[in-house]
Write a structure and sequence with these properties.
The protein has 17 helices and 7 strands. By secondary structure, it is an alpha+beta fold.
């Protein structure tokens, strides 16, 4: 069996991106990219040994070479993953190629003329510029699509449009799907927000925890809890785009500075809109500073116009703001913060969420952070 050894050499994403740029002139990158993820490949290694696994990889490489055009560029991405760059290829052609590969790989494969094994693959297909503006972004989109294909039943093809959160699916499966959605990067973004100001340290985590507690008190289903908890973790990510001078100013903000602060929900929505898995949390991120009486921002929504998730975050966010230390004052006592939340029912906050807050407080489900140890540098109260 003769297989191009370069196809079997494991290459990280960075190396594949470099190869793409080297192989194609600037601006003429491959129109499509496949990520091919072999299904249950570890079973071959565990059952027949790693030598058989290596031979199976060679068989896969041979199938790729047989079923691709001369101008297509296949490469091994990881242990059981391959990437194929398809220049001058429309989306329907790319999907057709992927389905042809799935079919070819599903046929029984003879290893070293003796052992017959079944190899199946899940393939994600992404297109430039629809699903990314660089080789790295395109690879990430195709990888997420391959994951969606695998968890939709394996041995099939998916594109980034298929990567959506199914809120009624099994909670454990939802957690696994979200974990694959670059949540390490998401966590890093949340940490970057905290790092801009020491007084915001831990804020995103606490708001996420408070919001989930409120959702449970409202008897919301488990998928809703997962979505609201994630929204709490990312609600302030737009502050990355706000000048540090506004976030860390110890005194009262000017009108212009307050307007800059008011843009952070919009910036956050714009940032997260690029991640298909996170589309379901965009309304909560954009509207968590709306008020029940319509005097909030950025869109001055009121009452039932405010997305339910955002109404929950508004209470969780405000409670943590009041019970966390700031540069210009110490944290308020929990009892005082509780009083202000109750007082704001029907004006600043949703009455339904405030009832859930009071219920959770009475049951001991919400406990404020220790004053002086962590804090949020919220600024909307300094504007007027």
């Amino acid at each position: 069996m003769t297989v191009d050894e370069r196809l079997l050499e494991e290459r990280p994403a960075e190396a594949i991106a470099e190869a793409a740029e080297a192989a194609f002139p600037k601006g003429e990158w491959p129109g499509r990219k496949h990520v091919l993820d072999l299904d249950d490949f570890s079973t071959i290694n565990n059952t027949f040994g790693h030598q058989a696994g290596d031979a199976a990889l060679c068989a896969v490489a041979r199938i790729l070479e047989t079923n691709l055009r001369a101008l297509d560029v296949p490469a091994r991405y990881g242990g059981d993953e391959f990437v194929v760059l398809l220049p001058e290829c429309a989306m329907d052609q790319g999907l057709a190629t992927a389905r042809r590969l799935v079919k070819a790989l599903s046929a029984p494969c003879l290893i070293e003329g003796i052992l017959s094994v079944n190899i199946s693959a899940s393939i994600g297909v992404a297109a430039l510029p629809d699903h990314g503006r660089s080789s790295e972004e395109l690879l990430r989109a195709a990888d997420q699509a391959a994951y969606a294909a695998k968890h939709a039943g394996k041995g099939r093809v998916a594109c980034p449009e298929d990567v959506v959160i199914a809120l009624d699916q099994d909670p454990m499966e939802l957690a696994a799907q979200l974990a694959h959605a670059n949540l390490a990067t998401v966590a890093a973004l949340a940490a970057a927000v905290d790092a801009k100001d020491p007084y915001t340290q831990g804020h995103s985590h606490r708001v996420s925890r408070y919001a989930a507690t409120l959702a449970r008190a409202m008897l919301l289903p488990v998928p809703d809890l997962a979505r609201i908890e994630l929204a709490g973790q990312l609600h302030d990510v737009g502050k990355i785009g706000v000048p540090d001078a506004c976030l860390t100013k110890p005194g009262k903000l000017t009108a212009d500075e307050y307007l800059a602060i008011q843009q952070h929900p919009v910036i956050g929505e714009r940032m997260l809109a690029e991640v298909p898995y996170l589309r379901e949390i965009l309304p909560a991120v954009r509207h968590h500073h709306e008020r029940w009486d319509g005097e909030g921002y950025p869109d001055r929504l009121s009452g039932s116009q405010i997305p339910p998730d955002a109404a929950i975050l508004a209470v969780a966010d405000s409670f943590d703001a009041m019970t966390s230390s700031r540069t210009y004052r110490a944290a308020l006592p929990t009892a005082e913060a509780r009083r202000r939340i109750l007082e704001g029912s029907g004006s600043q906050f949703s009455p339904e969420v405030v009832r859930a807050f009071e219920q959770a407080m009475a049951a001991g489900g919400i406990t404020a952070a220790m004053p002086g140890l962590e804090g949020l540098h919220e600024v909307f109260e300094r504007a007027g």
